[in-house]
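Sorry to interrupt, but I need a hand with the structure work. Go ahead and set the record down below:
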Amino acid sequence: MSLAFVQRALMERVATRLKEEFWTLEPVQEVKNKTKGYSLRNSLNSKIMTTKNIVTLLCLCFSMHLNAQKLPDHQSLSVVSPAIKIDGIANEWDNKFEAYNKATSLFYTISNNVENLYFTIQARDRAIIDKIIGGGITLTFTSPKSVKEKKIATITFSALSISSRMSIGLSRNDTSAANIAKVNKELASATKEIKLAGLFSLQDTLLSIYNNVGIMAAARLTDYHTYTYELCVPIKYISPFIDRKSKLSYKVQVNGVNSNNMAVIVNGKTQQTPSEETMAIINSLLTSDVSSKGSLSLRDFTSPTNFSGEYTLAK
């Protein structure tokens, strides 16, 4: 396989991804139809990137792809937490993670200190980010195998209402860097509660992110294809789920969007409550695998995906 073939294939892959954000990759022609380089044009603000800039972008994309290939599907190591600020920015990890789960397309690291358990989860695919924003992520803890009476505890965060999803979705169509702050402000405003069930000594409730029990959660977009979710849970609330060897069984689930909780745009008009005809079309799509490039099929968008594992607390 020639270097030119690999280079061309990679550029085509980047071009497909860039089109999602209204960028167009254009070959610059030399005499005799030899490609001199590439230019990158944004249809919204007409900014141009030259081949040198694109090489940097290409290396970044390729590096991220190789990083995902090298990582295990499930985290196997215990990790002592650094000083973590729950703000939806993975600076503490330098955006390097312990695992990449292919079933959910999520990078993640679980860590702990004496008092708290931390989950840092990152999505780098816009379709997966849209699914998370639509249905949220649920973390489930299950009783140790030695316990006869099985119990579970769940923590759900980041599911947005229809109106918030529509607003953020439209805002993300503006690809200017300055708009990221606006989108994150809307995201923070729309994610002010954490849904709890089954945690030790806590009532099942919708808990404000501004609470005095020590459970903290935050989500943030650092660019249009990177979404980071951070969660801190005091270990005392999950102590019944930790066995004698300090092992904890968990499940991370990207919840599908409820098809009854979807706004639909028909002929340019938004239907907050879809008509019977529109719902019939939606239901027919739910049984198919039809999708456009760079997006999920409606069935995948509305169906949960998850993975399970075990984590041994670091000492």
Q: What stands out?
A: The radius of gyration is 22 Å. Helices lie at 3-19, 51-70, 126-135, 162-171, 179-190, 276-286, 298-302.
